[in-house]
Amino acid sequence: MFTGIVEELGEITAVETLDDACRFRVRGPVVTEGARHGDSIAVNGVCLTVVDHEGDEFTADVMAETLNRSSLGVLATGSRVNLERPTAVGARLGGHIVQGHVDGTGEIVERKPSEHWEIVKISLPTDLARYVVEKGSITVDGISLTVVDAGPDFFTVSLIPTTLALTTLGLKQPGDPVNLEVDVIAKYVERLLGTQGGTR
To answer: Which helix (H) or strand (E) holds 22?
Structure first.
């Protein structure tokens, strides 16, 4: 489990394309400290398993399902990525409960800078819209954010200078894809109530 509080802005240092998968080598001095084979690290909000670790880099295999469901397939050598290690038991939950299981992708639609923050509009797959509410939580490229406005096919978030400086959202421009993970609690509630899109 993760919290959506990005620990560092890492970099893809190598991409090996396989028949039905990809192998990434990722540089991240903070998240690789003490890393071992089999550990989990979230890369742009996608929970990946450490295959190998050397120095300040680790490798992870990404299967076709993950490449198809997330934006990891567009990463290339030199791409910057948000990195986070799993939450330790007993640690403070600074963001919200994040699984690292991407529900879909959106795109940066618009950026509106102001003096102390920036409003970013992001497209939202219509089948995920029912899980997104104003002042609720959503994960964008692994970043726990609060929804400012929620529409039928978009939402907006307000980014503080720290988020802009220390995550990929400070770099992405309109048209760039982002990974989305909605609040898992909303999905469980829907399942328990036996509802789907507001019908019984």
So the answer is: strand 21-27
pLDDT in tens, 153-167: 999 999 999 999 999
**How many residues does the structure list for the chain?**
200
DSSP 87: P
Considering just the CA atoms, what is the radius of gyration of the chain in Å?
17
Does residue 32 sit in helix, strand or coil? coil
End-to-end CA distance of the chain: 31
For the chain, the 3-state helix, strand and coil shares in percent, each to the nearest 5, are: 15, 45, 40
Q: What is the dihedral of CA 7, 8, 13, 19, to 10 degrees?
A: 40
Q: Are 138 and 86 in contact (CB under 8 A)?
A: no
Q: Alpha-carbon distance 152 to 54, whole Å?
A: 45
Per-residue HEC secondary structure of 133-187 comes to: CCCCEEEECCEEEEEEEECCCEEEEEECHHHHHHCHHHCCCCCCEEEEEECHHHH
Q: Is the pTM of this model over 0.70?
A: yes
Task: Give the per-residue pLDDT at 95.
Answer: 77
